[in-house]
Amino acid sequence: GEDVEQSLFLSVREGDSSVINCTYTDSSSTYLYWYKQEPGAGLQLLTYIFSNMDMKQDQRLTVLLNKKDKHLSLRIADTQTGDSAIYFCAESPQYGKLTFGQGTILTVHP
Amino acid sequence: GAVVSQHPSWVICKSGTSVKIECRSLDFQATTMFWYRQFPKQSLMLMATSNEGSKATYEQGVEKDKFLINHASLTLSTLTVTSAHPEDSSFYICSAADRVAKNIQYFGAGTRLSVL
After folding, report:
1. Direct distance between the N- and C-terminal alpha carbons of chain A, in angstroms, rounded to an integer
2. Chain B 72-101, residues with CB within 8 Å of chain A CB atoms
3. Would you give the end-to-end CA distance of chain B in angstroms?
4. Is the CB of A31 less than 8 angstroms away from the CB of B43?
5. Percentage of chain A lying above the pLDDT 70 cut
6. What are phi and psi of A102, to 5 degrees?
7. Does any CB of chain A come closer than 8 Å to the CB of residue B105?
């Protein structure tokens, strides 16, 4: 079945860049997503990328996709303390069911 | 942006009672809504997929008689936890897929259920 893996923790200093990595196994993945979850809250869609794209940039966020290696990354430039949260990578074959990674806890130190 | 409202945000109930959680898409129509369960410090586990006007599709291991799902309109789905027990205590999150942009799921803020 589908599997999505993420590293569990990332700690960075305020102002540095953060890179969160994700690998997936389903070669039929059509869409790949990054969601952010703050404590006690639901998930906020940060960005998504279609599988025929290599990169997508949106303000401080850059998503890189290596389809050959089934590797997805999220880079947050100029990381702020407000970026501290859990970041989930997810994939979907087309419409519907999302398969999530375990989530990466990002901690930003002043 | 698209908003999904989930209500209540927190509920405490006695063992044996039933609890209903509502999920509404406020500014878009959602033919499909999803219900997830999240345990502390864990990822989201899909419980069921709900399509407007039809029966929900449950994931393996999820008891459909325990977790009743109704998707009565294009903007509302409800999850009822029947005869709740302490092991049902969890964080329940719904999402709604835009009828037009079907690949995008927007999430509610979640409901924390505590069963005493």
Report:
1. 41
2. 93, 95, 97
3. 37
4. no
5. 96
6. -75, -15
7. yes
DSSP result, A27-74: TT--EEEEEEE-TT--EEEEEEEETT-SEEEETTEEEEEETTTTEEEE
Minimal C-alpha gap between A32 and chain B (Å): 10
Q: In angstroms, rounded to a whole number, what is the distance separating the alpha carbons of residues B76 and B108?
A: 12
Nearest CA in chain A to B30: A96
Tokens of B52: 């407007």
Distance of CA B72 to the CA centre of its chain: 13
Distance (Å, whole) CA B72 – CA B54: 9
Between strands B44-51 and B19-25, the pairing is unpaired
Chain A residue with CA closest to B108: the answer is: A42
Q: Which residues of A touch B32 (CB under 8 A)?
A: 95-96
Question: What average pLDDT does the segment A27-55 reach?
Answer: 90
Question: Do the Cβ atoms of A53 and A65 come closer than 8 Å?
Answer: yes
CB burial class (10 A; 0-12, 13-18, 19+) of residue A58? exposed
Residue type at position B22? E
Q: How far apart are CA B69 and CA B15, in angstroms?
A: 20
Q: Which of A69, A77, A76, A58 is nearest to A20 (CA)?
A: A76
Query: pLDDT confidence of A49, banded at 50, 70, 90?
Result: very high
Q: Is pLDDT of A95 > 90?
A: no
Mean of the pLDDT values across residues A19-24?
A: 96
Please check whether residue A46 touches B, CB under 8 A: no
Cβ separation A43–B43 shorter than 8 A: no
